[in-house]
């Protein structure tokens, strides 16, 4: 009896924790209008009613742990919620790859010992892990556009290679896929049981971690899928800009943004001191240490509970970590304020958003192709899309982050279509710049698809502040 009560208490606690963590995620998501000029910070409204006091002071370690996205109890998610007379038409999923090994090493230190082979009885567990490995070993090159067919289909090194997906990363996406399966397939019947190859659209960058993340999600979504019905396209650009990547004005925004970043760093004397101390510990010039982007490696130590590296001069420690992470958070804050990144994002995200609404438009016309689209991508893909949509207050994309566009049809008015936008399971539709005023103007419960179309075809360029009304002109504006 006592045992049972304690179990129930634990369960309740877990549910509470999951809820609190979700609420906290809401908390930092404050919409900013991109379409209008001169919007003061006063007119920003919080997603959740402000509970008595101001939001908690940003805690760098807490933020870092959210970024790790360590698999735990199933989270609450808002995907697939709509009034009963709405029918789900198509779903477009953008993911960041799951947990990976660092891309850089901290010079002259031993790199963290993390095992990238998949082992079913090692944490984090997933009931489908073993079946996933076995299914991947049956895959063939015919399912992948070159050069993807030369990549391994799952991580497999006893000491991870640089940037390799870890077991944590695979489990994160198996979970994502399973969650989407329960909602979109079991509940909303997005695809028929005998779905065909052309009902899926699958695209990934050419890194093993994005391909493997996409496969893990797909396996969670469609367990034991028929390999003959799978075709992953290769996307050479991290912006997913396909044939429309040339955009000089976008690059100018990026250069200015990088200059802003550099100046902010110079102003932070505590940060400089911290890099200096760390450089002394590992015995390299400060410049070399900084260039090795130590935060990336330190995050891996943190996410995997491996202590920070030591040398005979001392140890890299949590205080160093906090200073660098706090600076990152400060940098994101200034980035939103100065809006250079917004300019970059509007142009950078246009091609993929344009492609997505094209796919949605074909679905509204009753075509049955590409009803489920999956883009397996990077933080540098998701971040500009979020920013362009007016969700710049959303948290930086964590490992295995997911951004989803749902297209719905009103059964009572079959010509009317609506969209929902979800970020990590949170409904952010009414915080996007194309639907944040919707409730004031319209009694409809859902965001009209036309709003998104108008935004991508026109308002994105208006938001840039020039006189351009299309992508080509905006990319080639003189005298910017
Ligand atoms: C992290 O590692 C320490 C020992 O190195 C261990 O005591 C602790 O329980 C671990 N924490 C988690 C969350 O696994
Ligand atoms: C946007 O999509 C349409 C087709 O839906 C295409 O004709 C047009 O070239 C695209 N524009 C850009 C800039 O990608």
Automatic annotation (TrEMBL):
Q: Which reaction does it catalyse?
A: 3-O-[beta-D-GlcA-(1->3)-beta-D-Gal-(1->3)-beta-D-Gal-(1->4)-beta-D-2-O-P-Xyl]-L-seryl-[protein] + H2O = 3-O-(beta-D-GlcA-(1->3)-beta-D-Gal-(1->3)-beta-D-Gal-(1->4)-beta-D-Xyl)-L-seryl-[protein] + phosphate
Q: Cite the Pfam families for this sequence.
A: His_Phos_2 (PF00328)
What topology in the membrane does the UniProt record assign? Single-pass type II membrane protein
| A single cellular component GO annotation | Golgi membrane
Keyword set for this entry? Answer: Glycoprotein, Golgi apparatus, Hydrolase, Membrane, Signal-anchor, Transmembrane, Transmembrane helix
Q: What is its main location?
A: Golgi
State its location(s): Golgi apparatus membrane
GO biological process: one example: positive regulation of heparan sulfate proteoglycan biosynthetic process
Top-level taxon = Eukaryota
The GO terms this record gives for MF are: phosphatase activity
Q: Do you know which SUPFAM superfamilies this protein is assigned to?
A: Phosphoglycerate mutase-like
Q: Which family does it belong to?
A: Belongs to the histidine acid phosphatase family.
Subunit text: Interacts with B3GAT3; the interaction increases the 2-phosphoxylose phosphatase activity of PXYLP1 during completion of linkage region formation in a B3GAT3-mediated manner.
Q: What does the function comment of this entry state? A: Responsible for the 2-O-dephosphorylation of xylose in the glycosaminoglycan-protein linkage region of proteoglycans thereby regulating the amount of mature glycosaminoglycan (GAG) chains. Sulfated glycosaminoglycans (GAGs), including heparan sulfate and chondroitin sulfate, are synthesized on the so-called common GAG-protein linkage region (GlcUAbeta1-3Galbeta1-3Galbeta1-4Xylbeta1-O-Ser) of core proteins, which is formed by the stepwise addition of monosaccharide residues by the respective specific glycosyltransferases.
Give the protein name, as stated in the record. Answer: 2-phosphoxylose phosphatase 1
Whichever gene encodes this chain, its name is PXYLP1
